[in-house]
Amino acid sequence: MGRRRGIGTFYDITLVARKEIRQLWRDKATLTFTFIIPVTILLAFGVTIPSSSSLVTTTVPIQAAICDFDNTTLSNDFARILGNSTSFVLSFQNDVGEARSGVEWGTYQAAIVIYPGFAANLTRRPYPLNVSVSVIVDDSKSYIVEIVEAQITNATTIFMERLGLQFVPAFKLDENKLSGKDLSFRSTTAAPVMGIALVFGCFDDAAGSMARERERGTFSRLLLTPINRFSIFIGKTLASLVLTIVRTSLLLLFLTYYLNVTIAGSLLLVFLIALLIDTTTVALGFAISSRAKSTRSVVIAQIAIMIPLIFLTGVLRPPETMPDYARGLVNALPYTYANDAFRRVVNLGQGLEFILGDIAVLLASTIILFIIAAIAMKRSIV
């Protein structure tokens, strides 16, 4: 009996999914826009966002590790100036590998390494030699490289003034970038834009579809069929997942051939993240559509969701440079973790172990939103 019920539920799910695809296929305008709109977002992004950015400064402290292997009075003074400035919050490390690992995992935005010979080169007479400071930086985060460079330069100026040298030696920043290549400004912001483009399409799959069915009167008839509410939710989600696979494929083509963004990591992980964005957004769409009775109200809700995401997901301004209250709001959004996963896979080529936390947040958000949607849908029907 249980096995027969399971087969029946699976048949109901596939029945709803096939109905969704057929219904969308008949509505050619909606079918066109569901693929064109996400691609249009990337097209506009490519036109408006340059490949390089101007120097950016910020007063928000950067979390940084520092390794002082010279361990002299001068190197200690330099590290102290860095730590006493408003630019950095320093954590002292004795191992470069641990410092780099901290940057990879996001514990630090940068790691500063002072190698032996720092003081000897600085005090050499008659003329000091070039003084080299190595910086390990996560260049997949927009603006971070320039922010770190600007703040180290400011601290260096203060350090030189305190030394009172008549001849100021040239400080050289040896950048050790996590990506291992020169990422363009466009590349570092492509991941959050791709996430927003997917959210736009996936939201319409759920909220837009439900609103259109209500206007046509087909949703009430669907509820009167023997198909249970769970099968309706899962069937519509399955249809949206199929559409998301197509959308993601199109967006990856545009990223690669139009925006010249190299996908450094696994394409399977990229699709996994895209599907998790889909389930989270579809669940959110179901929750909203339970109260939205018309397509117009869904469009308004869609705009109300999309515009804040553009400001809060790091497209226009990196979260590291935002005030504390804004960063708290950013950290509460599940899409922040989706964009972090995209950034790590697309730009840094990192594997599954680096995005497990992001995946867990997206899964938890999906479950919570589906529960809310089920409760809200039940109340709206009653």
Task: Describe what this molecule looks like in 3D.
The protein has 382 residues and is α/β, with parallel strands linked by helices. It folds into 2 domains: 248 residues; 116 residues, abc type-2 transporter like fold (3-Layer(aba) Sandwich). It is built from 14 helices and 5 strands. A 5-stranded mixed β-sheet has the order 2-1-3-4-5, with helices on both faces. The two termini are 30 Å apart. About 1% of the residues have low confidence.
In short:
With 382 residues, the protein is α/β, with parallel strands linked by helices. It contains 14 helices and five strands.
Question: What do the pLDDT scores average to?
Answer: 77
Tell me the domain tally: 2
N to C succession of SSEs: HHEHEHEHEHEHHHHHHHH
**Number of helical regions:** 14
Approximate shape: elongated
Helix content: 55-70%
What's the structural blueprint in terms of helices and strands?
Layout: H1 2-26, H2 28-48, E1 62-68, H3 73-84, E2 88-92, H4 96-105, E3 110-114, H5 118-123, E4 131-137, H6 144-163, E5 171-177, H7 185-216, H8 218-224, H9 229-257, H10 267-289, H11 295-312, H12 324-332, H13 334-346, H14 352-381
Parallel strand pairs: 1-2, 1-3, 4-5
Antiparallel strand pairs: 3-4
